[in-house]
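Notebook B, p. 112. Complex prediction, attempt 2.
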Amino acid sequence: MTIANPHLKFDSQAVAKPYFVFALMLFLGQILFGLIMGLQYVVGDFLFPLIPFNVARMVHTNLLIVWLLFGFMGAAYYLIPEEADRELHSPLLAKILFWVFATAGVLTILGYLLVPYAGLARLTGNELLPTMGREFLEQPTITKMGIVVVALGFLYNIGMTLLKGRKTTISMVMMTGLIGLAVFFLFSFYNPENLARDKYYWWFVVHLWVEGVWELIMGAMLAFVLVKITGVDREVVEKWLYVIIAMALITGILGTGHHFFWIGAPEMWLWIGSIFSAMEPIPFFAMVLFAFTMIGKRRRQHPNRAATLWAKGTTVTAFLGAGVWGFLHTLAPVNYYTHGSQLTAAHGHLAFYGAYAMIVMTLISYAMPRLRGIGEAPDERSQTLEIWGFWLMTMSMVLITLFLTAAGVMQVILQRLPSDIDGTALSFMNTVDQLQVFFWLRLAAGVGFFIGLACYLFSFKRRGQEVLTGATAASR
Amino acid sequence: MSETFTKSMARNIYFGGSVFFLLVFLALTYHTEQTFPERSNAAQMSEAVVRGKLVWEQNNCIGCHSLLGEGAYFAPELGNVFVRRGEDAGFKPFLQAWMKVQPLGVPGRRSMPQFHLSEQEVDDIAEFLKWTSKINTNQWPPNKEG
């Protein structure tokens, strides 16, 4: 970036752009592997043994995590300088870390796809410090160390920017969330030999991320975009932000207990986990009120309709996915029957999409036109296409969730409810045979999601002088 | 929100609330730690169990199966597979035979890869799964189908 971009407050914000572009490329990859798995659910031996299900799933979930991390980092590089009212401490470091992280990410995914997992474990010396082979933390230990190095460099960079600049509530909350993200990731290196203990601390990464510190990140990103697009007084926005994150942590920390019901931890967690996690929808509901109240009170009509829609949409979908669908099976007497069923998958999909995929796309929608030098908003046609992408993806994800919920309810009835005395419970494999119709419908909804994603990516196509496709256009 | 509820009040609730509940969480974690040896029969955790866990991890079994309800939901729950497949008398021979014949090659059926594990490694996994099935899980799963 040699020519100053008049639409950015600070030139160094431009480093956010490659992070966003790469995030969306990984998002595309995530969805392609999601479709492969959707097919494997109905045609069990599809692509077997070339891409067994476990490999496809690992690629699908790891791409999700990594693209969200790229999205969060891009968001931080964009909003921290603007909030701190000064240039980023080191744009060069941000660029170097981008390439380090992108290379490590691509190599890890290629490792998953090209080498049998046991071979990858041997190749990377997993036995020296075994951390692999646990859900979502499948990365080779060396990759995990790389993530720590990148995270430290990143935190140093934005931390220095913040220390030298203006300290706003939004930037401090963002920083706290990102530090928490890095700190809790360290538990991925702790893999006790005792499975009960291993599972207990595994949730320190997984739950305290998505139902803890990530909510701080989401809240800060949402508050930033709302300040920008509504022009509402910062004092008001920041008060809301504190209320939201207070509720998130007050309910979410002890809410971790809803994962401790059946993994060997003591009975007290049945009560603590049920009570506190039953309150976890509160912060998400507060986010809905927050977004709609701020937009209702807006002092200006922002030309970026798409960004406004994303900001509203992320709160509603997060409330449905994380709040309502989480609550559905969070009480211990219910969870006894639903734990580890298709209901878990239903909740996981809508929660991750609504809360985290959509908040990243909210920020991208707001920031990308500026990063690309277009202005406050893309042209009408691009926005219309983006809005089509929003609705197609969101409605498809709602359908995926409904079909998986139906599958989960049937699974519970067939496989879980009958007692051993009755002896009428179907085995797992016989149960899934009965659920085929739901899985076909889910696959169809998955195709709908993919079409929505294609609309969304094509909305970045540059009109006029040069014509490039989707994500590549954005990288120029 | 009304003017009587100020930003600094909201901030205090955030700081106070999260620090308080984090400390409670740590205290409850300390208590949980005290119960693990008994609830997980840690004394029965032989070297074979520990080796078995590593084989389990290094072949990404969790990518299809679930263990105590956590993992993927593409293949059967294995936390209680020891109970479902023959217990002391039958489980080990069953698992040895099962691992050898994969993949079953039934068209259209979900397929389990051939992992080329040694007899020793399969024995270790069997020991790991046997130990796992005895963890006190508050009576989960509801029945033996997992």
